[in-house]
Amino acid sequence: MSKVAEFIIACVARIPQNERSAIYFDYHVQNEITYTLHEYLTAIAAVRKSSGRGGFIPAVGWYFNAADIKPSDVVVYFVRDRMSSIASRVGGTFNANPDTGGYTSPTPQGIVSEVYVEYNLPARKLTNIAFHELMHNKLDVGTRTVPNIHTRGGIGHSPATEASVLTQDNKALMAAHLFDPVRQYTGRM
């Protein structure tokens, strides 16, 4: 019997504990993000399995550390705002666009995907922003599988909102490339 692969989305809260209540980023919000990302991965696993690529076990959580991250896994940082950007602090580019809720940037130490929590609630919107950034991570920043995910619709469309949906095209793209290795920045886990 072959071992089923596991795919990790490591969520990392980089907002100081004493600032979280001021922007309503509590464990209820984090739990909803976790469950919704797990739901998205489960849908992608079904597409992978039906296309003959094999399923996988989704693993989404706030408890992973750098040693847990395999070459195909992803890390998403939740920071307060653009001024708190991890990407720009570790050699990536600064996201100057005030209309975006997140950013994905290459750095010398790996890809950084980050979500700007302040002014981007409810939790469903934060989840969709996170998944949008993970699509960049896997499809057009970490690798160049598609020229621009913004043209693919659904959660790929920018900006990702609470109403964004994971389309069949989004699922198929991610199912095909989820296990492509992309070096993640893990220095702030």
Topology:
Layout: E1 5-13, H1 17-20, H2 27-50, E2 56-61, E3 74-79, H3 86-89, E4 102-107, E5 110-116, H4 123-141, H5 168-177
Helix pairs in contact: 2-4, 2-5
Output the strand order for the largest sheet.
2-1-3-5-4
Question: In percent, how helical is the residue content?
Answer: 25-40%
Strand content: 15-25%
Largest sheet: 5 strands, mixed
Helix count?
A: 5
End-to-end separation in angstroms reads: 34 Å
**Main structural class:** alpha/beta
The coarse silhouette is globular
Give the total of beta strands. 5
- In N-to-C order, the SSE pattern is EHHEEHEEHH
Architecture overview:
The protein is α/β, with parallel strands linked by helices and 189 residues long. It has helices at residues 17-20, 27-50, 86-89, 123-141, 168-177, and strands at 5-13, 56-61, 74-79, 102-107, 110-116. It has a five-stranded mixed β-sheet. A hairpin with a 2-residue loop joins strand 4 and strand 5 (110-116). It is globular, with a radius of gyration of 15 Å.
